Amino acid sequence: MRLRIWGARGSIPTPITTPEMRRRLHEVLVRSQGVNLDSSEAIDRFLDRLPASLTSVVSGNTSCFEVRAGEQLFIFDLGSGSRLLGKALMQEEFGQGQGTAHIFISHTHWDHIEGFPFFTPAYVPGNQLHFYTPFEDIEWRLRQLMGAPFFPVELDYPQATRSYHTLKPGHPHQINDVQIEMIPLHHPGTSYAYKLQGGGKTLVYANDAEYPQMDQQFTAPYEDFFRGADVLIFDAMYTYEAAVTSKVDWGHSTPKAGAELAWRAGVKRLILTHHDPEDADIALWSKIEDADQHIRFRNTRTSEERPLEVLLATEGLTLEI
Ligand SMILES: [Zn+2]
Ligand SMILES: [Zn+2]
Predict the structure, then answer these.
(1) What distance in Å separates the CA atoms of residue 45 and residue 29, rounded to the nearest whole number?
(2) Does the pTM of the predicted model rise above 0.85?
């Protein structure tokens, strides 16, 4: 399996700001003092040595995750990141109207579907778009997204063939040699986590979820669902402090809760996502340390140390699973 991230912001697209850009340039220029930058290659070598927090965007776009399992394409959510995914797909068979995508929608809050009207493969006749969700009225929901007075064209204008598949929790669905399962998550209006299993690998996409209790009685269904996953993509929008004070019942979780649940479930890699638009990119990198700190705390209190790698979801991140 291969994962590529196209959008990892929560709630609303969050482009980098001019003050943030200037702060980075300032920091880079400070670090460049005394460094030999007399050729293009030397400049590239210098840039390559800088931390990602200075040279890359964590995420301006909202949720969109691409997974390839063999020849098959799976897409989790169509946030604004799906516009860029669509552009990339147009370079493949989707450009000739010969592409097939299996699209899983966690829920239909704006930030998880707003990229669809800009998803170019949908406008090419011949392409096959399969939508999977437990929401039986998904077509109606997408219809609300398009058409006057909010968008120049209606849902019937895109010419790709769309099929809608209703999934049910507890009823795994098979797509060729890949199995997909889902469970409901605690989130306003309900969000759904998806588990993809194929080729001996397991990926779980669990975006937009709050875990208001961390006792095992409450978390058991989630731990069972996450158990042994090679990758768990987890909503870690808030700091622990915000989650237990000002953001209670907002439907989102924390790096610490992700670390705890992933640790209990024996997950191998935890990817922290759904970044708060209130947080500048620079603030997001500390999420890794928040989670790592909790894992170290857990591992020192057990005889069985569990290796668990923590990654920050960043636009463009590609992982072999
Ligand atoms: Zn969201
Ligand atoms: Zn949501």
Answers:
(1) 15
(2) yes
